[in-house]
Amino acid sequence: MTSTFTTIDYIVFALYGLVILVVGLWVSREKKGVHKTAQDYFLASKSLPWWAIGASLIAANISAEQMIGMSGSGMAVGLAIASYEWMAAITLIIVGKYFLPIFIEKGLFTIPEFIEKRFSTNLKTILATFWIALFIFVNITSVLFLGGKAMDTILGNGDGSLIFTSVMALALFAAAYSLHGGLAAVAWTDVIQVALLVVGGIITSIIALDHVTPEGGILNGILHIYESAGDKFHMIIKKDNPEFMNLPGIAVLIGGLWIANLYYWGFNQYIIQRTLAAKSLKESQRGIVFAAFLKMIIPLIVVVPGIVAWVMFSEAQGTAVMDGISNAFVKTDGSINYDKAYPWLISTFIPTGIKGLVVAALAAAIVSSLASMVNSTSTIFTMDIYKPYFAKKNGKDRDVRVGRISGAIALAIGVIVAPALGSIDQAFQYIQEYTGLVSPGILAVFMLGLFYKKANNRGAIWGILVSIPVALSLKHQYLELPWMDQMLYTFIITIVVIVFVSLSSNASEDDPKGIVLTSSTFKTDAVYNISAYIILLLLAVLYTIFW
């Protein structure tokens, strides 16, 4: 069954765009005679309720990187890639209980600001500059490229002719409301986009399962893919699996994935910025745990379709015959393009009208993440670079104006660089590995900054300087280490360096900027605690079933 993107689909898609623009501009409108302050623009006036925070966290996280890249990894690896999602749920619980109380108590705008309060301005500036570069040249560009690639496959014929046009359209759409409205526009539109994302993703999974067998039926589809690709339903893959280097067995649960998750969810500006915009700590924590619940269902949206695509591609016995399926996934050099899984399912099976909704859901995932990254880039540049070094006098209107200009520049650079990313077989894994070079060292600095009062600025600087060459050394092929193990070892070595240098320079006393923790610092209410227990129980059941 093949359908095309029809007029009805374009109308549905256009309605989605119109709704997002109207909502984004409406919630961020300025009252007559009142201009936005930095807190209004970058932290949504610190007024976000828990459900908006939770939805916005997921919207910022789920992008083309997941929808396309993780679905591609689902086709290549199977359910094991869902560890990123399910372990993220545990990580969110940790962040909400142990990190947020400190961040909110210190009244932060940005994550680099914590480094300044705990260590030094110089180290803050170094890390702020690094994060700006990372957001622009890795995050923004990858989201734009993968989004453009998906749209090229769905709306075109997949030959790359629509990639740049799609990249431009996605960038302009994100800019239309996010540059003007700031975090308020981004967060409130995220609520709509997450709802659409979940609905559209579930529809895609249901229709894909319904078409995987000749006789049809969702239950038949579930049973068939489980019987035909049973090896793709293991959370812990064995050493003889070709993907072991990406997901190294039990080490996923007790090793380097913790480094990736704690860095991403705990110290990532475009994630944490939403929690800093909460009405209160309690509201922020409830938003975090709501996001953790949403994380539990993400594999149904992104991983299952990838497994369905694999079953169809492998043409297992009892699978519905699809003409030309080999040509859809096999590249000219004979390798498999796994990242085509999700776009191919949409273009092949989703019927007219519903296709417009599903593509709108995909666009929602792309645009919401893109808007979040642009907003966070502008926040760091304005508050951590421009304001302290180039405009030391107060200027409320100026901060907002600079935020808008810097966001526009970041987006423009992303548009220029994105097409140069080229073809990546599993984009999700590639991005994770790239980020994995720098995240262990930064995480070590933050963790010791939070919980080790003897850690000082000299130790933190030496830790950052040492972590990169250590990570690069461990990446050499002769070691044959999975990249998650590389991250874990880099993290441990960096911890040792920071502790050693800190104690060498001042062994007897705590650092004057060390954080004082009390018994009440990490106290959480009953709603948070019960929700956390439920999530942990569900995860225990899932890992037991799919071990």
Describe the protein's architecture and organization:
It contains 22 helices and no strands. The chain is mainly α and 547 residues long. Helix 4 packs across helix 13 and helix 16 (354-390) packs across helix 17 (396-417). The longest helix has 49 residues, at 163-211. 54% of the residues are buried. The mean pLDDT is 84.
How does the SSE layout of this entry go?
Elements (H helix, E strand, L loop, with lengths): L6 H21 L10 H6 L6 H12 L2 H13 L6 H23 L5 H8 L2 H35 L7 H49 L6 H11 L22 H4 L2 H11 L1 H8 L4 H34 L10 H5 L11 H9 L4 H37 L5 H22 L9 H10 L2 H13 L5 H18 L8 H23 L20 H20 L2
Helix pairs in contact: 1-8, 1-16, 3-8, 3-12, 3-13, 3-16, 4-7, 4-13, 4-18, 5-11, 5-13, 5-22, 6-7, 7-8, 7-15, 7-16, 7-17, 8-9, 8-13, 8-16, 8-17, 11-19, 11-21, 12-16, 13-15, 13-22, 16-17, 19-20, 19-21, 20-21
Average per-residue pLDDT, rounded, comes to 84
Major beta sheet, specifics? none
Shape, principal axes of CA atoms: globular
SSE order, one letter for each helix or strand: HHHHHHHHHHHHHHHHHHHHHH
Topology, number of strands: 0
Distance between the termini: 35 Å
> Could you list the spans in which at least 5 consecutive residues all have pLDDT below 50?
none
